């Protein structure tokens, strides 16, 4: 027998001994409690599978999933739908297929971009033309206040620039008015909330968790911000990332919004879920202002929201052509919060020496406060705050 044969026989014997030990080991024995069957370690959601099928251009699989109840407007974490992605990929065939299957042609992602916004920025004219012909909103505005035509700026995409400008002209779109539409809608909503249901002020967005105060702060909608703050909106409300309205104002460089929030006692030390304060996420130009504000340390103790009840302004818009103002004030006494005193106050601007921006001289303010205190039977330990907006006064009564 050769040495090679000896080594081979030895290896076979060792392997036989290993198998014998395995058969007799505890590891190989049947456990007293059956092991649960393990599924696959990685499971993808049906939404992910649907988006992947669309991305792959597998129409047959997409149709099958739609028949099984898949949502054609399913979006990823950024809010991008399959239609958004098909536009970005310049896949006209898939765009047509998705639209024919009922995809929302004006669905916005987390940044407010519609499929037309995405297409315009990429310069794909054939897709843009198809979208417009099938109902895409040329006047839609994203979170930055941009219309699709505003994103068609790349000099290499001259055909797209020409097409979008032509669409704006043909549809007679007032771009400036379109950019202000969101602010005007929010202003209207804020007034409605103050008149009827103040709880709506802090209602979070179902996807982002942001409140109206977050949006107004980030975009510099100061008139909206004034009304929301007057309605006692939560200045430290957090969205799904832990950002407060002050984080948003600081990050987007909205100095006036930030100052209004700070004056309303927004907490500069609140951190988001990444451990960042408003200064940490602030625009470079905002950092100095925020640090100086902190250093000045002039902030007063915040008044408990329980001391101030819901108020409403019956004026339909902030520019009222009539001379008479009717203000409704609701006061809940601290010793009996179930009891509400409602006052309808008639204000005549001429008697208060109103100036172009509704400013009051100190003497007129004192005189007005004394007269109002007398008529409302408010004692000397009460105070009236004036929140002055252009051509609108909102009065809030509270006790120290």
Automatic annotation (TrEMBL):
The keyword Membrane does not apply. SUPFAM superfamilies: Ankyrin repeat (SSF48403). It comes from the Eukaryota. The keyword Transmembrane helix does not apply. It is found in: Cytoplasm, Cytoskeleton. ANK repeats lie at residues 78-110, 111-143, 208-240, 241-273. Keywords: ANK repeat, Cytoplasm, Cytoskeleton, Developmental protein, Phosphoprotein, Repeat. GO terms for molecular function: enzyme inhibitor activity; phosphatase regulator activity. Residues 18-39 are annotated as: Disordered. Pfam families: Ank_2. GO terms for cellular component: cytoplasm; cytoskeleton. Regulates myosin phosphatase activity. Augments Ca(2+) sensitivity of the contractile apparatus. Belongs to the NRARP family. PANTHER family: MYOSIN BINDING SUBUNIT, ISOFORM O (PTHR24179:SF21), PROTEIN PHOSPHATASE 1 REGULATORY SUBUNIT 12 (PTHR24179). PP1 comprises a catalytic subunit, PPP1CA, PPP1CB or PPP1CC, and one or several targeting or regulatory subunits. PPP1R12B mediates binding to myosin. Isoform 3 and isoform 4 bind PPP1R12A, but not isoform 1 of PPP1R12B itself. Binds IL16. This is Protein phosphatase 1 regulatory subunit 12B. It comes from Lucilia cuprina (Green bottle fly).
